[in-house]
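Standup notes
- DV: blocked on the single-chain target, sequence here:
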Amino acid sequence: MKPLATLLFCLTMATTTWAEGWLTSWDQAAAESKRTGRPILADFTGSDWCIWCKRLKAEVFDTSEFKEWAKKNVVLLELDYPSGGNQPASIKAQNEKLKDKYAIQGFPTVLFLDHKGKQLAKYGYDQGGPGVWTKKASEMLKKP
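- DV (later): unblocked, structure below
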């Protein structure tokens, strides 16, 4: 029974998180945002086909500078729209619903949201690496 419980736990975690603290569940991100008071950084991405999404991830999200900034400032939520569709049906349905709700037209789109889903700011790919990106994101989050 113990190996089965471990396997189920791993499968559950695989559908709700990925590397470095990114969640894939809106409900988990909203709960964490409410608990910490940090806004949600919702990354609408086509991770396996969108060139600009891949650049944003490589040039900003995968850097240690961004990761340190994120730990202090936001709750990370990845909303992926892969070409292969290799994701659980519940995540796919959630992501489609959120794409429609926020009228997402292109990728990458990064929204900063409060725990209730209110949009605080909108961003995307920007040249200059993590320093430029986090500085602009911080400025956006300071505006009332």
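- Follow-up: The radius of gyration is 15 Å.
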